Amino acid sequence: MEEDKNIENEKIKDESKTNGSLSPDYLVLMQKDPNWMQAFWDVNEERLQKAQKTGKKLVLRMYDVSKDVTIRSRKKLKFYDIIIPWDARSWYLQNTYDEAVAVSLGYTEEDENEESFQELLSSEEVYAITPDGQGWTTGGDADRFVAASLGAYSIGGSSEQGLSSWSGDDIPSSLGESSEAVSSWAPSSAEPYTAPGMHWRGQGKDFFLWVKTRLIVYGGTRPDANLQVRGEPFPLNPDGTFSLEMDLPDSTQVIPVFATDKDGDFPTTIVPVVVKRTE
Amino acid sequence: MATGKLVMLLHAHLPFVRNPEHERFLEENWFFEALSECYIPLLQSLYRMVERGVKGTINLSLSPTLLQMLADSLLQKRYSKHLAELIDLAQREQRRVEHDSHKFALISYYLQRLRSTQYSWEQRYNCNLIPYFLELQDLGKLEILTCVGTHPFLPAYQAEPGVVRFQLELTVKTAQEILGFVPKSLWLPECGYFHGLDSIVREFGFENVFLETHGILGAKPQPPYGVFSPIRSEAGLQFLGRDQNSSREVWSRKVGYPGHPQYREFFRDLVHEAPRDFVGEYFYAGDSPIISGFKYYRITGSEDKEIYQPLQALQLAREHARQFVLNREAQVQDLAPHTEIPPVVFAPYDAELFGHWWFEGPEFIEGVFERAAWSSDIEMVGVSTVMDSTPNMPEANPFLSSWGEGGYGAVWMNSQVDINYKNFYAALAIFRMAYRKHSTGGFSGLVLAQMARELALLQSSDWAFMIHNNSAAEFARNRMDEHYQNFVQLNQLLEEDRTQSRIFDKISARNNAFPYMGPSIYRHLAR
Using one digit for the tens of pLDDT, what is the confidence trace for A131-149? Predict the structure, then answer.
């Protein structure tokens, strides 16, 4: 107890620096899955305000650096711009390249203009592989081994007693859908995963196709605001941003997003309506 | 020579939990439960097979955080005390249920097991299991692997290879210090893989890693034998991919063996049923009862649970083991005519499934060994045996993958833990500045090392998993926050050019993992 008291008495000289947070500049690009990446960053507020006063637009510039990842200046590389709000601190990016990508945060007079772009931060490269890059050989033994790898063979046992017996319905239908949430000391969810929103169509043993969809809802408000998504309180990140990712089955999804300021004033509702149909 | 090979792998890992400030700390019980139910029974079982001359090898990945805890004298002492408390409770429970013949028989069964565990732990293993895992490796029953540092989900750090190198250097150093050798094979946390990881892993001398099924199936060019042959990437790293059939038979809640009605029910424990004043304060943390492991019921198949019958359940585990091996034989018989390489079935599981979640699991493993020992179609082998005996393995570069829900990063990279990554990358930027500015010797060197420790512990994939599963989620959030706040305070000590600090003393006494943390390891964080 005496020791704890001494520790409490140990003062750090400049307490303004120990507010439990750090704010250096960084920009990180993270690959979430073959289709989506997330960029998030922190940039000195003064620099950002100075940039905003120029009247230009804040953009995330996504580069295809697969041709030469050693080019640091990133000039003459293929890129595309995404205009983002000045108060954004993270953004989802659709992965359209099939090799190394990098992203810069900067401001420009008009998007996709190489000359007027002023860079604030840049990320390291990430090797992104899109599913489009895949090309399976099918037929003959190739099919046999793919199907067997995914657990397709019905083998032995009695399903009544919990022994192994698999029908075609049990077969994981696609890459990325055969996994189970297994790990750690928390209760294992050792159950085959079948994603809602996934469509599987087979035509005999030589061909298959799967298509699935996911929905990302994201936005931002004041960091101290109260936010509800679909009527439920929803947590904000410290910078006021939020994001929600979900499977998207065939349906009409109505997603009311409701916010007030910290005192409950300025009630504001935005309702994205997303119609997903598979034909 | 057998038609095919079965590579059964148990991944043993727990997050680093050790709290010297409290006599009894709820989450330390995870380690104690794993010792009683998983690790000690596994050792006992493997020694029995050595004594009986049963052939075959199983692969065991021991994570660096688990190795730290296994070697920690405070946790060793606390586990001895824990065993004594459990035995005392069992003896009292015998008196409480002496008129209920079923429960009396069961608690007597648990008491007998505990006394055997206590004898093994204190008399045979001298409170440290590590030398005995090593001995079993020498005897050919085990092939020991290791895992990456504090179990980070590596695809989250793809943009910062220095962070991956930091964790791998920590892995190598931990293996050298605690195991006395560096295994050739490495378990990637959550089977998380991204393009380019192979060349980084090779830099540290590891030869073999393991992937989820689609990591292999999506490799370029397409591997000709699916997951039934190892592959080698351009960087020279060798991969085995998970077989889905052998996985489902054990993991699946719906059709997997552990869900059989005869097996022991996990969620009904004595501490939930007996009064608090009987159970005693040792089995409570605040108002939360701490699991004793004394469970009276079987799964039954309904809410009206029937009494557990251990002998029948253990016999069933043997029957399931027989079935499991038969299925593997059927697989390799079917595939062998179509491949030039003997088919390899790779069956990885969390080690803690066997004994903890699935009480009869150790019996199942022993049964698999015994049934496979006389099979002419399948043999249980170590990873190295497979890799060394496959000189012409297909060459291909694997695909982004994990074994988590959805197959990619959704479990460990999502909006619930976004803040964790923002904190980590902010702290990383600060660490780089601190590394350039301050000496790695003297007190500042000690502080830098502790900052690196806090960063490493912050990276454990366990925290995100617990939050995702809403299991011990508050503890996980607190741990992430604790490591970040410790980092902030330590950085402030550097900023103020301190030469000593009680805050440092307290933090470093609590989070004392990896005592060899130093510039040779954390230099990687500085790129």
Answer: 544 455 556 777 788 888 8
Instruction: Render pLDDT for B87-117 as a digit per residue (tens, 0 to 9).
Output: 999 999 999 999 999 999 999 999 999 999 9
What is the ipTM metric for this complex? 0.86
**Test mutation, A179, A180, A198, A210, chain B, max B CBs within 10 A:** A179
Chain A contact set for B190 (CB, 8 A): 183
Question: CB-CB: which of B212, B349, B469 is closest to A179?
Answer: B212
Choose among A40, A183, A190: nearest Cβ to B256: A190
B257: nearest CA partner in chain A: A162
Question: CB B426 to CB A24 under 8 A?
Answer: yes
**Which CATH fold would you assign to the domain B418-526?**
immunoglobulin/albumin-binding domain-like (1.20.1430)
pTM: 0.84
State the nearest Cα–Cα gap between B383 and chain A, in angstroms.
Answer: 18
Minimum Cα–Cα distance from A165: chain B residue: B255
**Mean pLDDT lowest among A144-153, A191-200, B185-194:** A191-200
Asked if B409's CB is within 8 angstroms of A32's CB, the reply is yes
**8 Å CB contact of A149 and B404:** no
The structural domains of chain A, ordered by start, are: 26-131 (2.60.40.10), 214-276 (2.60.40.10)
3-state secondary structure string, chain A? CHHHHHHHHCCCCCHHHCCCCCCCCEEEEEECCCCEEEEEEECCHHHHHHHHCCCCEEEEEEEECCCCCCCCCCCCCEEEEEECCCCCCEEEEECCCCCEEEEEEEEECCCCCCCCCEEEEECCCEECCCHHHCCCCCCHHHHHHHHHHCCCCCCCCCHHHCCCCCCHHHCCCCCCCCCCECCCCCCCECCCCCCCCEEEEECHHHCEEEEECEEEEEEECCCCCEEEECCEECCCCCCCEEEEEEECCCEEEECCEEEECCCCCCCEEECCEEEECCC
Q: Report the candidate in A40, A30, A36, A37 with the shortest Cα–Cα distance to residue A213.
A: A36
How far is A265 from chain B, CA to nearest CA, in Å? 26
**Domain positions in chain B:** 4-71+128-264+308-388, 418-526
pLDDT in tens, A88-124: 899 988 877 667 888 999 999 875 666 788 999 999 8
Distance from CA of A113 to the nearest CA of B (A): 26
- Classify domain B4-71+128-264+308-388 at the CATH superfamily level: Glycoside hydrolase 38, N terminal domain (3.20.110.10)
Name the residue of chain B whose CA is nearest to A163's CA: B257
B22, B69, B213, B505, best to mutate vs chain A, most A CBs in 10 Å: B213
- Give pLDDT tens digits for B259-293: 999 999 999 999 999 999 999 999 999 898 999 99
